[in-house]
Design goal:
Layout: E1 19-24, H1 29-41, E2 48-52, H2 55-68, E3 77-79, H3 85-94, E4 95-100, H4 105-108, H5 110-119, E5 122-125, H6 130-147, E6 150-152, H7 160-171, E7 179-188, H8 193-204, H9 206-235, E8 240-243, E9 250-251, E10 256-260, H10 265-275, E11 282-291, H11 294-310, H12 314-321, H13 332-336, E12 339-348, E13 351-359, H14 365-380, E14 388-389, H15 392-395, H16 397-407, E15 410-416
Parallel strand pairs: 1-2, 1-4, 2-3, 4-5, 5-6, 6-14, 7-11, 8-11
Antiparallel strand pairs: 7-12, 9-10, 10-11, 12-13, 13-15
Amino acid sequence: MTGDSPPDRPHDGKRDREYDIVLFGATGFTGALTAEYLAEHAGPGTRWALAGRNRAKLEAVRDRLAALNPACAGLPLLRADTAEVGSVAEMARAARVVITTVGPYGEHGEPLVAACARAGTDYVDLAGEPAFVDRMYLAYHEEAVRSGARLVHACGFDSIPADLGAYFTVKQLPEDVPLRVEAFVRARFDPSGGTVQSIIGIAADVPGMLRAERDRGRAEARAEAQVEAEAEARQGSARRVRLARGPLPRTHVTGGWTLPAPTIDPRIVARSARALDRYGPDFTYGHHVAVRHLAEAAGMVAGAGAVLALAQLPPARSLLRRFRAAGEGPSAERRARNWFRVTFVGEGGGRRVVTEVAGGDPGYTESARMLGESALCLAHDDLPETSGQVTTAAAMGDALLDRLTRGGITFRVLDAG
């Protein structure tokens, strides 16, 4: 998206780092797709490098990239391993932005988050693991605020379509009034090995996820109490953000049935709403999976219940993990058949708007695009002054929306009244 070196930003103290972007995990399935995306879109003004623990595999990735873009033949290769904290810290200090595709994040992610928070390095990942994100907030948010690091989780299908889609929808509605947005997700995709491992990890540790959510909630409540008190003294009332919990069994918007979406998406949207006044004084968000037929909905519920039950038993959990090993993923032909659409219904101030975010293969092709553009946005664009653990909407907002739109992901208004 950018072919020239961007101008220095006065508030950016990391311009003298050796690399604008380092991609950690380039030898994995999603990491390789992200590397290909950067090879084609980063532009000659971006100083970037590949990182991982196996140099021979990194060299093989670089050779493939050079076939796409001869300028990548000299791409720097860095050795880093989450089991060796020093190597991860060195990588973080060398970069302005680090991308990581090394998951499951609950097992492998913390050393890099810690290193970036300490070094003041911006960080992006594909984490859809709520417990991991909450634990990283509790452990490193304050340190990242002090260092100036922006820690941006969930920069793929989890949770950019939901987060930026809700942001786009809110922008179509009146300001300074109570707003409600409902999202309906439809998609066709094939899971990679890394995704399978992450889903099993989430299902196996539901109590840990609930504890992390509770602990984060308490920490945020203390911080928000002070912010709300200041807002109430200044404006006469405090802002409120809520997640809609009630079921919506039928939807006339997408012509089918809905199920609750047990993903990190609604939490991310709620955090954006708390961070940005544009969401109004009272914001409510609902998030749903939409399916065409009742039998399909029943099958999804039964399948999710089976995975949840089996994940509690170590022998069964081991069998589930063999379904697809980390590093494996669908072929280019299969990915080409995949798609996603997220429809939003927003209401407030006497207006109703229906919007849509849509794209191709959500799990890998489009996630690589979203992840790559998030890193390029943090590295090159003029953005709001934020730090700590922040969301894509709060940290990048319009700039990332513009990048993704130019890249082929559609954000459009279907109906406005």
